[in-house]
Amino acid sequence: MRYELYYWPSVQGRGEFVRLALEDAGADYVDVARLSERTGRGMSAMMGLLKNESLACPPFAPPFLKAGKQVIAQTANILLFLGPRLGLAPKSEAGRIWTHQLQLTLADWLTEVHDAHHPIAGALYYEEQKREAKRRAADFTAARLPKFLDYFERVIARNPGKSGCLAGRGTSYVDLSLFQMISGLRYAFPRAMARLEPKYPRLVALHGGVSARPRIAAYLASRRRIAFNQSGIFRHYPELDA
Amino acid sequence: MRYELYYWPSVQGRGEFVRLALEDAGADYVDVARLSERTGRGMSAMMGLLKNESLACPPFAPPFLKAGKQVIAQTANILLFLGPRLGLAPKSEAGRIWTHQLQLTLADWLTEVHDAHHPIAGALYYEEQKREAKRRAADFTAARLPKFLDYFERVIARNPGKSGCLAGRGTSYVDLSLFQMISGLRYAFPRAMARLEPKYPRLVALHGGVSARPRIAAYLASRRRIAFNQSGIFRHYPELDA
Q1: Nearest CA in chain A to B54
Q2: Across the strands, what pairs with B31?
Q3: In the CATH scheme, what is the code of domain A3-85?
Q4: What is the CATH number of domain B93-213?
Q5: pTM of the predicted model, to two decimals?
Q6: Nearest residue, CB atoms, B119 vs list A76, A94, A120
Q7: Chain B partners of A58 at a C-beta cutoff of 8 Å?
Q8: Mean pLDDT across chain B
Q9: Which CATH architecture has domain A93-212?
Q10: Interface ipTM
């Protein structure tokens, strides 16, 4: 099965969590909106699908994945679907529900990262909400960021599999997503992360372990990996990094 | 199986989406934090479970559901688990993924409702972020609210089952959740909703249909239904309702 991933072509954003799973599994996929318009792909193909009125199950927003005739949206939902198919989820129902629960908690965290620079409206520029962003980011780095880091460190510590992973004995898609969170947070909040990281040895080790997985390492070194930039969810504004 | 629901006892909040599913199905459940401390329940039981260091799969926050030995958190995840067990989800995997996708989109919408009155920090009082809330709520009522209403109206219109429901031929948990969204939005933003609702006949009809389901009607009339109030996610601040 060749999967088709649809996401904005110039940012990592939420699409990156899906890309990391596909890449780690060596899956056959195309990143549609990044391909040439001349081949019938590119942004026109993505917008065409979003506006397609005959689609019975329309996505609200990218990312979405086309798997055969199925069109699946919502990042965590895409990973719920892909996990077992890519060998990146536990086998039991309880294990899958737990992995998905962690992914949803990570999604809440990601929304808070975004809203730290866009607390008023996604449709406004950062500069139009900079004063509010300073207040929100101050709360984020002082209270919310350590709360989430504490939580995920605790989850690794309590994993009965003692694998250094979040869920079960092996790497699952939520480990790849946590790698991405740590990478993004280091880019966006280098000072806060430098201060906090020494308290979270398990998170740092998980990040290192994922980045050393052969397919992930090859992906990160490739042109398929979009660089962090000031249009994505993770943005580096020094004034927001207390 | 007697389910145990754990959620803050004085607000509807996210717990209400789970309560509606349990009530509609006539499920055997206890709402633990609302019961007496003298019976070993109440808030102490909830906080005890949250702080229990031997729990291998700790929730990040309420609501969470205890089903036998399993402890499941994240509202949409709880409903993913309960849906098939309560007869409130489609039978096929594709149908379940679609229903869950809609629930996750609804969860994003709910977060935006919350952040309309708390754009800076959940830990601060509304009065400490009132100026920012006015800006965010203005964008919410003008742009985001119609965008989500448009989307869910479209989903009902396109449902091949022509059932008036969101997914498939029968009522699923996401219909109950959409009922709760409409109810809450009417409480929080009566002026905006009065202006917008005429454009969304399918949403209005779904809301009416759910409220007339015998077990839901009985629940809404009972003392088990907590009233909307100014501590919940849906809050009525006239200055935020343009």
Answers
A1: A158
A2: B5
A3: 3.40.30.10
A4: 1.20.1050.10
A5: 0.98
A6: A120
A7: 151, 154-155, 158
A8: 97
A9: Up-down Bundle (1.20)
A10: 0.98
